[in-house]
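ok posting inputs for the flavin mononucleotide job
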Amino acid sequence: MEFLELVKLRRSIRKYHNKAIEKKKLEYVLEAGRQAPSAVNFQPWHFLVIKNTGLLKKVKATYGKKWIDSAPMVLVICGDHSQSWRRGDGKDHCNIDVAIAIDHITLAAAEQGLGTCWVCKFNVMDCSELLKLPSHIEPVALLPIGYPAENGNPKRHNKRKKMDEIVQWNGFKSVDKK
Ligand SMILES: Cc1cc2nc3c(=O)[nH]c(=O)nc-3n(C[C@H](O)[C@H](O)[C@H](O)COP(=O)(O)O)c2cc1C
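and the output
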């Protein structure tokens, strides 16, 4: 599959089959995250695999939307602020690094026929307490993962800005917003 084809194939999946993910496939997907680039190669991330029924239910409850219940597994992708690179002006690159790892994971999952959905609208404090995360570990996103039982939301997925809205040559020109 061509890379752009894979990129377009990936979409947010919010309904999953009640089918376990094979260990080999999960390892493949996690390996894609492990190989992601990061600032100064600090790799400030942790991938928490949650499949224990009791804990899974509690992690899902930190998001609270009904659709996530069908996911057989949730990855809690965490950033480690004690390991991330800070630029001279103080900017912490932790969440940038973590986002790249998540993107690798979602694309690898799509290639393996698995669905995922970024979830950031969860209760971070509840999640951190539940998983007993130290204060320097931030749960950045929940990533439900499993075999898709829907084709995503094509209307939303296909709604992308036009190339000339986002690409500018030789400098930035403000565009009047109506
Ligand atoms: C940083 C980030 C946070 C997101 N958080 C949520 C979320 O909390 N709940 C949700 O249903 N979708 C969430 N999404 C999924 C987006 O809604 C989705 O990616 C977007 O609508 C485009 O659709 P597509 O992924 O199918 O292409 C999030 C996506 C990103 C990148």
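notes: Residues 94-111 form the longest helix (18 residues). The chain has a mean pLDDT of 96.
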